Amino acid sequence: MVPEVDASTATDTINSIKSLVYNAVSDQDGYGAFTKERLATTWQWTAKAQNIAVDSFDPESAINRQFIPE
Length: 70
Prior knowledge:
The chain is mainly alpha-helical. The chain folds into 2 domains: 1-30, no CATH class; 34-70, no CATH class. It contains 3 helices and no strands. The longest helix has 15 residues, at 7-21. The chain is extended and about 45 Å long. The protein starts with 6 loop residues before the first helix and ends in a 21-residue tail after the last helix.
């Protein structure tokens, strides 16, 4: 459907990242779910990598959980 994209390369790319979506975490928490603990850890790693103070941002302020079914 998109002639400039090689179908074989696109397929290989999708297959190589599939485990980032379908894994033990998504089985446990669901797709797109952010636990407070995992979100905090991700922010800590990001802040460290970017030389930003961890306490300069509350990652919870970027999440809207109202659309996630209970």
